[in-house]
Amino acid sequence: MKIIVNEKFNNKSIEYFLDYYKRSRKNKYLLFLEKRILLNNKVCNKDDILYIDDVIEIDLKEEYIDYELDDKKCDVIYEDEYILIVNKPSGIIVHDEKKSLANMVARYYKNNNLNISVRHLHRLDKETQGLIMYCKNSFFQPYLDDMFLNNKIERYYKAIVFGNVKEENFIINSPIGRDRHINNKYRVSKSGKEALTKCRVLKRKGKYTLLECKLETGRTHQIRVHLSSKKLYIVNDSIYGKKSNDFKEMGLYSYKLEWNDILTDKKKVVELPPNKELNYFEML
User: Fold this and answer.
1) I need a surface site. Which of 9, 162, 191, 244 has the fewest CB within 10 A?
2) Which residues carry out catalysis?
């Protein structure tokens, strides 16, 4: 892997560069010990100073595709050298030994001669459709993990709920914990973990409202629990919502991811293309 130094790392040390990308102490030690990091084609040490247009070369250890291949096509929405974003269909889980999104991504990697591990950076519930981000480069995974942990990769959802929501913008700031009486169900609980969701109305039509929900935390079933706690029931949510014959799927979609490019810091925005369910709000 080669990286050309830009202004962000000008007059900074090699160690600063590695620390910035969240490399562990052990990883840094091994990079230098095994001479797997070069600066301008020369062996370097942690105190060497970087300048604009310098070339850092890192010899990444050999990888392999670590999931069984699925024959289903992977719906790729965005890809660059380091990141892959795909559209997860409703009804499949993010990763499992077989018949999961990870297996579909594994097939995509194989078809495109990418001999790399399948590394999802976050998850979606089985019935939720939408954007999932993968890290294609092992060097940047700790940095991307940290970005998700600190909400530097912003996640936006669209939710179809019953009723005519009157408030244009509102915040749900309620802790979430496990429901002790029902397996795999969560609820608002004073003893739960901090959870915050920002919501705004996008459209209203008939007996439904289309909301945009932005996650400020990442608790299991967070949006589903928060909305149901306010009696805003997501259509066809079998655990927290209500059945609707107007829609075929659960009305929750991971539709937008925003982040700053890991090298240039330029703003990146990726959105899910419109689908039949959301087109309901466009029809007269």
Assistant:
1) 191
2) 125
